[in-house]
Amino acid sequence: MPKNKLQRLVFYVSLFLCGVSFLVVSIEIFSYQQEQNHRIKIEKNKGEQTAIRSSKQIQEKLLQLQNTANSIASDLSSGTLTDDQALERAKKELEQNPDFLEVGLAYKPFAYKPNIRLYAPYYTRKNGRIERKQIEKFYDYTKPLPKNDWYHKSLADGSIWVEPYFDDASKDIIIDYDVTFYRTDPTTKKKTPVGVVFANYSVNKAQDFINSLDLGKSGYGVLISKKGVILAHPNQECVKKQKTIFQIAKELKRPEIGEIGEKAIKGEKAVIEYENVMTGQDSWAFIEPIPLTGWSMVSVVIKDESIVDNKARRQDLIRITLEVIIGLFCLSIIIFRANRGSLNSLWAVSSTLSFLCLAGIGVIWFIALREHQYKHRENLLLTQEDVNNSLKTQDKPSEPLKQQEPLYIPTGIFIQSIKFNGANDVFVNGYIWQKYYDNIPDGLSPDFILPEGYETEIKEAYRYKKDNIELIGWYFETKLRQNFDFSKYPFDANDVWIRLWPKDFHHNGLNRDVILVPDLTSYDIINPLSQPGLERDFVLGGWTIESSFFEYKFNTYNSNFGFGNAFTKNHYPELYFTVILKRDFIGIFIARVVPLLVVAILLFCMMPLSRDHGMEIVGACAGLIFVIILDQISVRGQIATQGIIYFEYFYFVMYFLILLVAANAILLKLNKNIPLILYKNNRIPKLFYWPTLLGILLIITAFTFCFIDKNYKINGSKNVTSSILLRTIQLELI
User: Fold this and answer.
1) DSSP 589
2) How far apart, in whole angstroms, are the C-alpha atoms of residue 142 and residue 472?
3) Crossing angle (nearest 10°) for helices 3-78 and 203-212
4) Pick from 250, 368, 513, 694: CA 20 to 30 A from residue 596's CA?
5) What is Dmax (Cα atoms) for the chain?
6) What pLDDT digit, counting tens, does each position of 312-343 carry?
């Protein structure tokens, strides 16, 4: 083919491929953006509906309290109830509404009896019992003090929801509704205010309301009063100190939080996007007013958690990256006129392709580092609804075996330290606690088992009983032997998981299973990225903590552990507390990647010397292979895993490249008539050196992160032997 025709063919083919590539990229980007925008729209609408529903549910709870107080006040005012009967009614309301903290009456001075100045009887809930008390024994509620606003403002306005305050009588921060009741003067027939009926919740109960709402897997709720005071928040310190949202915004220097407060106190409905303080992620704050009280319910949803499918997103972005590289490569051929064959244009195209491949590898690495591994989990337990859904099948005991419903034991964990003692051994210590209710049958052992642990020490640390709940906490130290997935080293993320069994995992005497459930209420926030259940400032050499969470694994056993047919050995839910660790990439990059890069540069610098110093270059290549072999052995010794890991492909490519450079030097030294080698003083191997090296690495990287997705699962085998046998095997190996 004539030279001019070949040049034109190369030019037009490059132009065509460039156009097609950019057209495909444009379509891909548009499709990707459309999909993301569609997800955002759906999740945003879902968040708004959740906020509306949550606001209504909170209002219904508050309305229940308000109606109770209004009913007593109305009956007192109409004469339907006497003073003594009103007090009995208050007791009855407290008995029928377990969420209420106090219900009572506060009379004006001398209004109850002419010889009694203050009289304010009420019933309160304390230690699971209902007790009668008198406010006047704690303080004079008629004094013009801010803490007595509930009394004075209700007399002035008739009824009022007061701002939360610390109550000296109950020694708690309360949410209080107050309404005035009257007596009719027999002479004038006019109604005269006699006193105030009050009913209230503890702020702790308000927090329980919020926790019980379905706010999505990553969401949480904040309740704000009409003055901006935090009534409910995952961080209980904000509630206990009665902070306003404006104080928090000022302390954190976050004006967007102040904007949320401004909207809330104005009773406006709004959606505000901001960076979440607790997780550091972009979030939506859905503000929904509660008309009854003038408060606002703020539903916070983590934006990234709602709209991103990690695997699909990763594959889309990698595919777009490769298409952009192809398009820019073809464009560089056109811009630099490489079809004409000039040396400068060819070097420009070679350098451009090398840079694009290097940039592509960097982009894929960045995508891998940004990915959150916990999203691959199927049975994450982030809300009570997740727990209930996971245990639906367990609520149906076997009728032929006449089994009772399972016993559920709330269990929590707090890990103080994690230390790797080897490639497969982990030392863990911390606290585990369980809550036992009074209805737990006798004979149930309050304890737990760590099936995978060896050299385990467990000591009871505390025991505390309040109301009808006994809390028992243990300090534990254990070593765990676990398999880790290093296939994507140094971009691997691995689990350190603690499997928890109840000591009596099957109560044979009662013919029922015992199942552990996560004590979610003991954590400020359950979002995995906030790392619930972990000590702050963990020091893990070479690792960083990504997330922590509870999850269920439904394991099947080929043994009934001696309990006979009564034991549920199929699909038994086991509680896991999992900590995901991501490897520190920077340290690996400096220690492993930089030396390989230096070797690659040395090889390229040796190529111009191949004709005159061929055998010396062969000797140098042999030395470099030996160095790389030692480095690979070092990596293997550090990781101790089966199969080929991602980073080992870098070594294989370097072996291949060293052999090519050595072969090139030998052929030049022998002066064989090979056009590909001899053309213009070995120009073709030099031009293809960096594009070949980086192109192969780009293909391997794209394939590893786009198509290989093992979704490594602990205990993934469907048929595993009993943990007792596994534990025995581990001890034998040790």
Assistant:
1) I
2) 44
3) 140
4) 368
5) 130
6) 788 888 989 999 999 999 898 888 887 777 88
The CA radius of gyration of the chain, in Å to the nearest whole number, is 35
CB count in 10 Å sphere of residue 488: 19
Q: How many CB atoms lie within 10 A of CB 439?
A: 7
**pLDDT for the residue numbered 446:** 78
Picking from 87, 64, 94, 69, the residue whose alpha carbon sits closest to that of residue 178 is 69
Residue 630 makes CB contacts below 8 A (sequence gap 6+) with none
Residue 333 CB neighbour total at 10 angstroms: 23
CB of 572 closer than 8 Å to CB of 557: yes
Cα separation, 544 vs 636, whole angstroms: 21
Buried b / exposed e along 356-390 (16+ C-beta atoms within 10 A): bbebbbebbbebbeebbbbbbbeebbbbbebbeeb
488 close to 368: Cβ distance less than 8 angstroms: yes
Q: Which residues of the chain have pLDDT under 50?
A: 400, 711-734
Contact indicator for 149, 162 with CB cutoff of 8 Å: yes
Helix (H) or strand (E) holding 549: strand 543-555
Terminal Cα-to-Cα distance of the chain (whole angstroms) = 72
Residue 517 pairs in a beta bridge with: 410
Residue 134: predicted pLDDT: 93
Report yes or no: 449 and 487 within 8 Å, Cβ to Cβ.
Answer: no
| Residue 269 to residues 150, 220, 221, Cα–Cα distance (Å) | 28, 18, 15
* 176 DSSP 8-state letter: E
8 Å CB contact between 228 and 220? no
**214 neighbors 50 (Cβ within 8 angstroms):** yes
> Rounded distance, CA 359 to CA 694, Å?
10
CA 129 to chain centre: 38
Kindly list the distances between the CA atom of residue 652 and the CA atoms of 193, 619, 657, 697, in Å, as whole numbers in the listed order: 91, 19, 9, 10
Q: 3, 340 in Cβ contact below 8 A? A: no
Which residue spans within 143-269 are E strands per DSSP? 159-161, 165-167, 172-184, 191-202, 220-224, 230-232
Backbone angles phi, psi at 312, to 5 degrees: -65, -40
What kind and span of H or E run contains 287?
strand 282-290
- Specify whether the CB–CB gap between 286 and 299 falls below 8 A: yes
650's enclosing H/E stretch is helix 648-670
Q: What is the pLDDT of residue 529?
A: 80
Chain centroid to Cα 715, Å, comes to: 22
Q: What is the pLDDT of residue 727?
A: 32
The pLDDT of residue 726: 30
223 vs 225: CA distance, rounded Å = 7
Q: How far apart are CA 199 and CA 154, in angstroms?
A: 12
Q: How many CB atoms lie within 10 A of CB 192?
A: 11
